[in-house]
Structures are given as structure tokens and as C-alpha cells.
Design brief:
Blueprint: E1 2-5, E2 13-16, E3 20-22, E4 25-27, H1 33-38, E5 48-55, E6 59-65, E7 72-78, E8 80-87, E9 98-104, E10 110-113, E11 117-123, E12 127-134, E13 143-145, H2 166-169, H3 174-182
Antiparallel strand pairs: 1-2, 2-10, 3-4, 5-12, 6-11, 6-13, 7-10, 7-12, 8-9, 8-11
Length: 183
């Protein structure tokens, strides 16, 4: 497994496993504490694992947490997703940068998203399972959502949106979220 820095988002990493394939399929390690530790992250800091299953075109996000934020490891374990990270840490050298990735069950790559970054994804296959490993217990009172189609972000979502939650559909603009954070 190798770890690669994500240049567009300071502190973000892409962890790429080494698959071992044969006639049965493949095997790969999707988490390695030593590799995580080698880039300065504490592997023991992650306290919850979650899984979502999405149909083709479903869009989830853009989500982040208020307060101390939430760091997460995200991996598409089955299918394929278009994954997006937006750096919203005012003191970051990559503040307001947007980075996108294709995560898939074929590669099993894991994306580390630092606390203070917004995250969202769109399913690119009939079914896509996305795993999250987060560093704090989830508290719905801290949930923040930003409009996925905010023109200031200009995210090039690859497919028409087939479904999304009411919260995501009614999310405020990035400008409004930033204004609310300052108040």
C-alpha cells in the first residue's frame, strides 16, 4: 500500500493498495496502520465506520461538520463514484480548492479527507458502496451541507442527479455557509 499526497488539498492523502489477483478474484489490504502512521496520522483516532449504498446518479453532499470538524477515510468498496473534496479551512494554503477523484471497487483506493473539508460524491454505477471511517462520533447537530451545484465551486458532476436527500437539495450556497460560520 502506498500513500500519495493530494496537491490540491493540503493534508489530504490517497492510499492505494496492492491487489493480489488470481483466478478466484483479488485480495488487498484496505487499511494499514503503519502506512497511515507514516504520513503523520494516528490510526487509532478513527472511531466509527459507516457504509452507504447508492444507485446510479445518486448524489450525496456536499457535507462537513461544524466545530472541530471531522477527518475521514473514504473508500468505494463496490461500484464506482465521482468523489469531491472542498477545502474550507480558512488557514489552509489550499483554502477553497476543489479536488475530485474516481474511487472504485476495482482499485479499493482510500481517500483521507482532513477535518474542515467538505465532501460529496456521485454514484457512477448501478450500485456503489462507499465506506467511511471517521475520527469522531457523528453528531447530527453539527452537520453542515453546501449546495452541490454552487456556481462558485463549479463542480463538474459527471451525470444528471437521479436522487438526493431533501437536506442536500435544499442546501445553502457556499457563501451563505461561510457567512454563517463568521457570525
Amino acid at each position: 500500500m502506498k500513500a500519495t499526497e493530494v496537491p490540491a488539498i493540503a493534508g489530504a492523502y490517497l492510499f492505494e493498495p496492492t491487489p493480489h489477483a488470481d483466478e478466484r478474484g483479488f485480495f488487498c489490504r484496505t487499511f494499514d496502520a503503519d502506512v497511515v502512521r507514516s504520513v503523520g496520522l494516528d490510526p487509532a483516532a478513527f472511531v466509527q465506520d459507516s457504509l452507504s449504498r447508492s444507485a446510479l446518479g445518486v448524489l450525496r453532499g456536499l457535507h462537513l461538520r461544524s466545530g472541530a470538524g471531522e477527518a475521514k477515510l473514504v473508500r468505494c468498496s463496490y461500484g464506482k463514484v465521482f468523489d469531491v473534496v472542498v477545502d474550507l479551512r480558512a488557514d489552509s494554503p489550499t483554502y477553497r480548492n476543489v479536488a475530485s477523484f474516481e474511487l472504485s471497487g476495482e482499485t479499493q483506493a482510500t481517500l483521507y479527507i482532513p477535518a474542515g473539508c467538505a465532501h460529496g460524491f456521485q454514484a457512477l454505477t448501478e450500485s456503489a458502496d462507499t465506506s467511511y471511517r471517521i475520527d469522531r462520533p457523528h453528531d447530527p447537530a453539527e452537520d453542515v451541507t453546501i449546495a452541490f451545484d454552487d456556481p462558485d465551486l463549479a463542480i463538474p458532476w459527471p451525470l444528471p442527479v437521479t436522487s438526493m436527500s431533501r437536506r442536500d437539495r435544499e442546501a445553502p450556497s457556499l457563501a451563505q455557509v461561510l457567512k454563517n460560520r463568521e457570525s
